[in-house]
Design brief:
A hairpin with a 2-residue loop joins strand 2 and strand 3. The radius of gyration is 18 Å and the shape is globular. 12% of the residues lie in helices and 37% in strands. It has five helices and 19 strands. The longest helix has 11 residues. By secondary structure, the protein is mostly beta strands. The structure holds magnesium ion (MG). The site of magnesium ion (MG) has 7 residues, from loops.
């Protein structure tokens, strides 16, 4: 199933997409109930971010090709950080970033939406806790990451977590470690890799996180980004006002957002 959230008549609904049609499916994305009567043309609705996560747990340096390009040793265990839910924006929505950074970078990532929460999940059971998968752009302010000595501001600025356009439920993605993942900026391919490059796969990540942090339905895990990010380029390539960034993942879809900046303080 392709599951979406969208705005209609002043409320937020869940829907199922087939082709270019949307069937209304109640209000709970994690438990969609198709009403079977009405269907809408996709062009009639504006999609929202498909999840409103209670928490967003992200993983740094989790692709072998990205570790190589940034000259870093692959970590011995997943390196976790968090993004705040206030950073989330939906598909097509402008990612409007506070003008306190001049080094905004793209990071195409496979997003994992938790369906059944738990703690202490064994790796062999972990994929059974996954509701589905989506595209995420882990927009990162490199100057703030460096200046602050940790990553809270650099990773959690308003607008810095585009998510969508929908969640593909997990039965349609039997192997999340075999998906082509790309990032395209203004039509130019800047990242082109495979989730096979992940150092710690989805099952290992869900298990590892849940040993210390209870995972709840709707939580979103960002699984790291492959090679090709802007800060390792010579010269570095940072995002500018008006740039359009797409994250494309095989079997899931394409998430596109224009980038903007609020005036600096
Ligand atoms: Mg990232």
């Amino acid at each position: 199933m392709r599951v979406v959230r969208y705005a209609r008549d002043g409320g937020v609904r869940a829907g199922l997409i087939e082709g270019d049609r949307l069937t209304e499916a109640g209000t709970d994305l994690l438990h969609p109930v198709p009403d079977g009567r009405s269907s809408l043309d996709l062009t009639e609705v504006s999609l929202l971010a498909p999840v409103v996560p209670g928490k967003i747990v992200a993983v740094g340096l989790n692709y072998a090709d990205h570790a190589r390009e940034s000259d870093q040793e692959p970590p011995g265990a997943p390196v976790l950080f968090a993004k705040f839910p206030t950073s989330v924006v939906g598909p097509g929505e402008p990612a409007t970033i506070p003008g306190i950074t001049t080094q905004l970078d793209y990071e195409a990532e496979l997003g994992v939406v938790i369906g059944r929460g738990a703690r202490g999940i064994p790796a062999v059971e972990a994929l059974g806790h996954v509701f589905g998968y989506t595209c995420v752009n882990d927009l990162s302010a490199r100057d703030l990451q460096a200046a602050d000595g940790q990553w809270v501001r650099g990773k959690s600025l308003d607008g810095s977590c585009p998510v969508g356009p929908w969640v593909i439920t997990s039965e349609e993605i039997p192997d999340p470690q075999a998906l082509r993942i790309r990032c395209v900026v203004n039509g130019e391919v800047v990242q082109d890799s495979s989730t096979a490059e992940m150092i710690f796969g989805v099952a290992e990540l869900v298990s590892f996180i849940s040993q210390g942090i209870t995972l709840e339905p709707g939580d979103l895990i960002l699984t790291g980004t492959p090679a090709g990010v802007g800060f390792v380029r010579r010269p570095p390539r940072y995002l500018q006002d008006g740039d359009v960034v797409s994250v494309e993942i095989e079997g899931i879809g394409t998430l596109t957002n224009p980038i903007g900046f609020r005036p600096p303080p």
